[in-house]
Amino acid sequence: MDIIFASIxxxxxxxxxxxxxxxxxxxxxxxxGLIFELKVVVPTLVLFSIVLNLIILVKLRIRPVFKEIGxxxxxxxxxxxxxxxxxxxxxxxILKACIxxxxxxxxxxxxxxxxLNIKNKTVSYIITGILSGxxxxxxxxxxxxxVVLLANDNKNKVEFRSSLTFLFITLNIVTIILYYNKGLFxxxxxxxxxxxxxxxxxxxxxxxxxxxxxxxxxxKKMVLVLLLFMGAMNLI
Length: 236
Known about the structure:
Elements: H1 2-20, H2 24-32, H3 38-60, H4 66-89, H5 92-112, H6 121-139, H7 143-150, H8 157-181, H9 188-194, H10 197-211, H11 216-235
Helix pairs in contact: 1-2, 1-10, 2-3, 2-11, 3-8, 3-9, 4-6, 4-8, 5-11, 6-7
């Protein structure tokens, strides 16, 4: 029964990602965390995110601009091990509370369209890389710091998405290697979860199709309100 619920959650999260280009881990993490322990959920989402981002990268067919994300990627990779240690050693209740607070904060920031006034771009990229690496290693949420930081950059949208997608693939590969070294892939439940990969792929392509049929702005707002609700519920 747990796997059935998990497949529904993964399909819905992938559907949202395909339709809006964001939200897979943000939606799947708190919901799957209600059913499974985080040491199962987080490695699963990192694996799924690689496949998801590869689909997006192939679909975009644009070469990433490496000079835009080089510094950010470097510092993110350096701090992924710290995030992995948090996943391994911090009490799960504390991690879940932090995830809930993070969800609420992200949803509020994106709903209000808040943009940063960046004065020192190099420092801001370093800080964002550090936060992104820690969050990816700990809870598979590397995206929010990067999106918030770069939301006000006037770059080509497709080129920007392609660069970010490459960044996430790189971080997830490094994270998976560290998870493997720490024995996080030895859990039989995780093996069962990985069998749901086709569900995620179907959800992603369904979302891509749906994205051409709906109002993207309104749909994103609905998802963000849902994130607020999930964050609040997980804190109770």
